[in-house]
Amino acid sequence: MIISFDIGGSAIKGGIARSETDIAALGRRPTPRDDFAAFVATLRAIIAETGEQPSRIALSIAGVVDPDTQRLICANIPCIHDRTLAADLEAELGLPVLIANDADCFAMAEAGLGAGRGHRIVFGAILGTGVGGGLVADGRLVNEAGGFAGEWGHGPIIALAAGNPPAAIPAYACGCGQKGCVDTVGGARGLERLHKTLHDLDLSSEEIIAQWQLGEEKATRTIDVYIDLVASPLALTINITGATIVPVGGGLSNVEPLLAQLDHAVRARTLRKFDRPLVVRSECRIEPGLIGAALLGLKVEALLPKA
């Protein structure tokens, strides 16, 4: 038995896994963002709920681990940022610890139990507040150490003009330190940024989408530009990885007409032509971080020599 955690900036969620088909949610508690001792105590309390001793714990975190130093980069939870978190938690909890990027866990969940079942190469894409992704091949994460593989949201590659007719698009500054990343336009905040640039209007992503679905002219123009900007780098990612399915998670994945338009635009730009949907809504709608972390932990356990 292993215990998995989905570590977010606002909440820590726990799960218990005995097999790939036996994964159940445990408690949910607020994340202690600035107190490492309290952070450890929260994990310990969730573990105690089971009344059992797990063989290991596996964590899904919105961050990446430097594969050379093993230090975690996690800006939204200061008490664990820049720590050798796996080693620190192993010392505190007396258990083996596995840490994985949340987008990687999402991709693992979709490949194992979601929309990616039956596909050799699965690219899991996140279109939430920002943009993320993870790549799974033959049931294994590509570049398991760190969580950098699959990060199609970063790199200065967005077009300088998009839409029909083309509109000029600035190279927006990205939180990663670069300019012109997909992350600056592809998530909910990016959609809002585009609407402001195109129409000088401050609307939430929900308002933009609602107006688009009603046929409002300005919102329709924004969605046209958005699809054009996002489809090309996603098609390039598919060409490079050979993915045959792209499950999408995050808040924007709930807008099925938007996803359908993105799928149509992406399939028109990939080298391999698909006569079926390629960019699809994720199927693991509840806690994919927990599921993905559990699957990773179970795979590690399965590789260990039996006593």
Q: Key terms for this structure?
A:
307 residues, alpha/beta, Nucleotidyltransferase, domain 5, 2 domains, 5-stranded mixed beta sheet, 9 helices, 37% helix
Write up what this structure looks like.
- This protein has 307 residues and is of the alpha/beta class.
- It has two domains: 2-104 and 286-300, ATPase, nucleotide binding domain (Nucleotidyltransferase, domain 5); 118-281, ATPase, nucleotide binding domain (Nucleotidyltransferase, domain 5, 2-Layer Sandwich), CATH 3.30.420.
- It contains nine helices and 14 strands.
- The protein has helices at 36-50, 85-93, 102-113, 183-186, 188-199, 205-213, 217-241, 256-267, 288-303; strands at residues 2-7, 11-19, 22-30, 56-61, 64-65, 72-73, 97-101, 121-127, 131-137, 140-141, 161-162, 167-168, 246-249, 279-281.
- The strands form four sheets. Strands 3-2-1-4-7 form a five-stranded mixed sheet, with helices on both faces.
- Strand 8 (121-127) and strand 9 form a beta hairpin.
- Helix 5 (188-199) packs across helix 7, helix 6 (205-213) crosses helix 7 and helix 7 (217-241) packs across helix 8.
- The two termini are 16 Å apart.
